[in-house]
Amino acid sequence: MTNTGKRFSWFRWLCSVFGLLFYLADIGSDFLLSVQYFKNGHVTWAALTLVFVLLGSLCIQIFSYAWFKDDKENYGEDNKALSTCHLICIHVLQIGIFTRYVHLLKKSFKVLRSDDTQEEEQFHLFGLATDLSMLRMFEVFLESVPQLVLQVYIILGHNHQSYLQYISMAVSLLNIAWAMVDYRRCFRRSLPYLKEMPSGIPTAVYLFYKIFTITPRILSLTLFIILSAFCTVAMACIWLVGTIWAFVEETDFCTSRVLEHLYRAIVGVILLFTFFNIKGKDTKVHMTVYYIFSVGQNLAAPILLFLLKPKPGVPDYFLPILFFILVSDSMGLGFLGLYYSLLHPRQPCREKMTEEDGMDQVDGMNHEPKKPTRFEHFLQI
């Protein structure tokens, strides 16, 4: 996952600490919010808040456990402190991600304090960090983003507001931003020819592109739900289209067929909110079509709500929301164009390149013959 000249630094160690804190804060704030809802008699809201937390946690625990097993069987990694029985217990207790963070922080702390660090140890540390970044991507789109949809729906649709609600939303948004930044950093490290490319500006532009396109998507889906609960059926259809596309593209991320099907279903959820290259091919056409439909749906949501459900309160936030969606989508697409035209890492011509030379293509391999890493088959940017 890494190459010569790229070393796991103290800054990366601190980033891992912050990643753990954001993860715990996101889960903790949502749990406290569900308790508040329950105490106030809003049992349905409390249940839905907990469902998103548990659903996201369950999925990432499944993948975390599977990856631990794969690493033992395929890469000879065997941590005596994590026996099979121990692994099962920590993932059943839903603390697999916490355990991964602790393991990474302890191991990297030891390596950073050592004067003699082998390249293989650096490679292993970046592998652990990359696994966490992929799991956090799952968690963000299965828990944080749906949680924002739910809370915005409660605020706009039921005019129910609380300080804890806003704290939970702010933490979720921060968690999304952090996961995006961390993921791009891992993506950058997976490309050995990016040694001289600065990461600050490209990462910031990529973050703005994602945030400014995901936020209006969250808002528009919320407005559709306010318009009619049956709109969730339409959302399920959009999810199904994304899942079918993953099947058509024949993604090969997992070693197990059952897990691969689960992965494709999760990809469908992710594509409901934002676009990713799921196969490492040239996706200019796919991305263009995706954002044409996405922007059209985003603009249609407030307009349809205003026309079809004109009740007291709707006109109050119609214009601000419509203006926000217009501005946010415009800025997001502007940052998208800037990133992919000037700042996105491009694959140089090499003998073992695949046929496509599109802007999203990635091989993520070092010059040394190594087994393909999970990251090479994950979502590409």
Automatic annotation (TrEMBL):
Record's bilayer topology term = Multi-pass membrane protein
Q: Which domain of life is it from?
A: Eukaryota
Family the entry assigns: Belongs to the XK family.
Q: Which gene encodes it?
A: LOC109089226
Residue ranges crossing the lipid bilayer per the database entry: 12-33, 45-68, 80-102, 162-181, 218-241, 261-278, 290-308, 320-343
Q: Name one GO cellular component term.
A: plasma membrane
Which keywords belong to this entry?
Answer: Cell membrane, Membrane, Transmembrane, Transmembrane helix
Q: Which named protein is this?
A: XK-related protein
What subcellular locations does the record give? Cell membrane; Membrane
- Give the species this sequence originates from: Cyprinus carpio (Common carp)
Check the record and name the InterPro entries matching this protein. Answer: XK-rel, XK-related_scramblase
First-listed, main subcellular location of the protein, grouped into a coarse class: membrane
Q: Which Pfam families match?
A: XK-related
PANTHER family, per the entry: XK-RELATED PROTEIN, XK-RELATED PROTEIN 9
